[in-house]
Amino acid sequence: MVAFVTGGNRGIGLAIALALRGAGHDVVVGSRSGDAPDGLAAVRLDVTSTDSVDAAIDRVESEFGSVDVLVANAGITRDTLLVRMDDSDLDAVIQANLVGAIRCARRVARGMIRARSGRIILISSVVWAAGSAGQVNYAAAKAGLVGAGRSLARELGGRGITTNVIAPGFIETDMTAALTDDQRAGILAQIPAGRYGATGEVAAAVAFLAGPDAGYINGAVLPVDGGLGMGH
Predict the structure, then answer these.
(1) Which residue, 68, 93, 115, 227, is most buried by CB atoms nearer than 10 A?
(2) How many domains are contained in the chain?
(3) Integer Cα distance of 78 and 85 in angstroms
(4) Run of H or E residues at 2
(5) Number of other CB atoms surrounding residue 76 within 10 Å
(6) Known catalytic residue: 138?
(7) In a domain, 19, yes or no
(8) Catalytic hit among 60, 93, 119, 138
């Protein structure tokens, strides 16, 4: 089975790509550079461009076969308070995090419909429901993924295709490593598990949803957040 992971060259995306490879998938990573570490196959991809999305998936299909699993993980942040947020901050984050995922899903859906099988997994965030000060653009995009994913679940579910959303909380990545000690302590105080998550824990959830035992899970939002999002 061919798995295509956008933004799979580092952090959570790389962990997902490696986990899917370990589960036996032929994994291709989409990245802006067209490169990926650890011997993974890669194609150049800019999810904000329809032409780039089409070209990348055309290449995947020609070299590896139709995409059986799409993991839409690519995204960016441009955090600032709303009154300081300009149009470029809004447009860039919405395009990269939300519209880009929809573009990728639209393109791979063609082959999945013909095959009458497939897995689409969208990587959202705990902020989709909880919100986050300074992240109006990011939270809106991540909430949009839930609506898009559930709509796709209704559109495609009868053709053997599942669409699910994973909502990670605070995960140990380069981004969280840059937080100050006070910031880390404040965040940890809100997490019932009392720790940050590991990228491998998000990847394990993706591997499960991509596997044969998850065929009847559709339109779900799976939190991987140590309990941070409870009640939202």
Answers:
(1) 93
(2) 1
(3) 9
(4) strand 2-6
(5) 16
(6) yes
(7) yes
(8) 138
